């Protein structure tokens, strides 16, 4: 299977915003866009995006998971980046139309069609370093995918990093700049301690990794950081917390310090996992801090596996969609 996100359908759907409002969405080739070299996005990073998935059920029908939440989050990211306001009804329809057009290319489980709505500031104005782009482009790319992490759901090694992933008021925005600022520590962690990901913990506060949220399972309790502006409000995180509550687990959304985390993972039976659209729910086997490896619990991932299965069962159509998370295409 090709690396995650490297294969695209030949077409995408696009709409442009200018003083006349949004253009009627059109299906165009997905391998190029026409952009002025002075476009706002290329200089001042006015870009945000979403990641959601469409799944093929056993009868061949296609369902998109939690589309409304992703559409709402793109709307929110656009607002926080002062990009033009996204027409949510239009975006919803763009997603449905392009996925429908490529329904035959949606892989069967465990694969899926990864959907990448993207919103960029296109106004050609390099003087606007401190002013918004009044023109933009919104497009929806599709990429048939398998596992995000190369080892499937092999337990990950995470390096605890003292610095923040991004500016603390911007973490909740799914913007390109946040990924750019996290890249160097991630590359360094791979090269120096063979880590798969970095867990950003500024001032000893356990936040998230570069591409997923962090969850700790201790007995019947799930502990994860309470929502604030400093990190991405993952939709998978919310789904897993909901499924955990359904099973009678105690959900604690609160501050988790590095000290508490390292103490708790040394108990047998503790588990940790990363949640995200691409990551799904992937177990964490090792935390690396101050040059020392901390094995998480006794190496079991029963709770992680059970919750991932419960999520997949809904996505793949083998369990009832009790929370109304699926939209039929
Ligand atoms: N945090 C970051 C930085 C991410 O890139 C992602 C992936 O989208 C997540 C968290 C998880 O968000 P979601 O579950 O909505 O995909
Ligand atoms: C997602 O999970 O949708 C993301 O955006 C993460 C990305 C690295 C693929």
Structure characterization notes:
The protein has 329 residues and is α+β, with helices and mostly antiparallel strands. Helix content is 26%, strand content 29%. The strands form 2 sheets. Strands 1, 2, 3, 4, 5, 6, 7, 8 and 18 form a 9-stranded antiparallel β-sheet that branches. The mean pLDDT is 96. The chain binds pyridoxal-5'-phosphate and 2-OXO-4-methylpentanoic acid.
| Ends distance | 25 Å
**Element-level helix/strand string:** EEEHEEEHHEEEHEEEEHEHEEEHE
* Average of pLDDT: 96
Bound molecules: pyridoxal-5'-phosphate, 2-OXO-4-methylpentanoic acid
How does the helix and strand content classify structurally? alpha+beta
The biggest beta sheet, please?
Answer: 9 strands, antiparallel
What is the count of DSSP helices, taking H or I runs of 4+ residues? 7
| Spans of at least 5 consecutive residues with low confidence | none
Q: What is the beta-strand fraction?
A: 25-35%
Helix fraction bin: 25-40%
Q: How many strand segments?
A: 18
* Backbone CA Rg: 20 Å
Using the alpha-carbon principal axes, give the shape: globular
Sum up the structure in keywords.
single chain, 329 residues, alpha+beta, 9-stranded antiparallel sheet, 9-stranded mixed sheet, 7 helices, globular, binds pyridoxal-5'-phosphate, binds 2-OXO-4-methylpentanoic acid
What is this structure, in a nutshell?
The protein contains 7 helices and 18 strands. The chain has helices at residues 40-44, 67-80, 88-101, 176-193, 235-246, 258-265, 302-315, and strands at residues 11-18, 21-22, 26-29, 47-49, 52-56, 62-65, 112-121, 136-145, 156-161, 197-200, 208-209, 213-218, 221-224, 250-253, 271-276, 280-289, 292-295, 326-328.
């Amino acid at each position: 299977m090709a690396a995650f996100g490297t294969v695209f359908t030949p077409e995408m759907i696009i709409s442009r915003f200018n003083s006349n409002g949004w253009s009627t969405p059109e299906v165009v080739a997905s391998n190029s866009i026409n952009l002025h070299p002075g476009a706002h996005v290329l200089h001042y990073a006015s870009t945000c995006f979403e990641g959601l998935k469409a799944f093929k059920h056993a009868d061949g029908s296609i369902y998109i998971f939690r589309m409304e939440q992703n559409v709402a989050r793109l709307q929110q990211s656009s607002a926080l980046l002062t990009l033009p306001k996204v027409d949510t009804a239009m975006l919803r329809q763009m997603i449905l139309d392009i996925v429908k057009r490529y329904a035959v290319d949606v892989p069967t489980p465990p694969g899926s069609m990864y959907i990448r709505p993207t919103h960029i500031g296109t106004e050609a104005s390099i003087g606007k370093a401190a002013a918004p782009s009044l023109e933009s482009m919104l497009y929806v790319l599709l990429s048939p995918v398998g596992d995000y992490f190369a080892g499937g759901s092999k337990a990950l090694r995470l390096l605890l990093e003292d610095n923040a992933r991004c500016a603390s008021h911007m973490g909740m925005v799914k913007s390109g700049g946040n990924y750019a600022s996290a890249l160097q520590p991630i590359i360094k962690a791979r090269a120096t301690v063979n880590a798969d990901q970095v867990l950003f913990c500024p001032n000893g506060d356990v936040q998230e990794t570069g591409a997923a949220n962090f969850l700790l399972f201790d007995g019947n309790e799930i502990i994860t950081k309470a929502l604030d502006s400093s990190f991405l409000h993952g939709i998978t995180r919310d789904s897993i917390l909901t499924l955990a509550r359904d099973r009678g687990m105690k959900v604690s959304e609160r501050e988790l310090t590095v000290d508490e985390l390292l103490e708790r993972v040394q108990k047998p039976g503790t588990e940790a996992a990363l949640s995200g659209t691409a990551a799904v729910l992937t177990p964490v086997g090792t935390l690396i801090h101050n040059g020392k490896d901390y094995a998480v619990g006794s190496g079991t991932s029963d709770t992680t596996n059970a919750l991932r299965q419960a999520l997949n069962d809904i996505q793949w159509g083998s369990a009832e969609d009790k929370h109304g998370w699926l939209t039929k295409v």
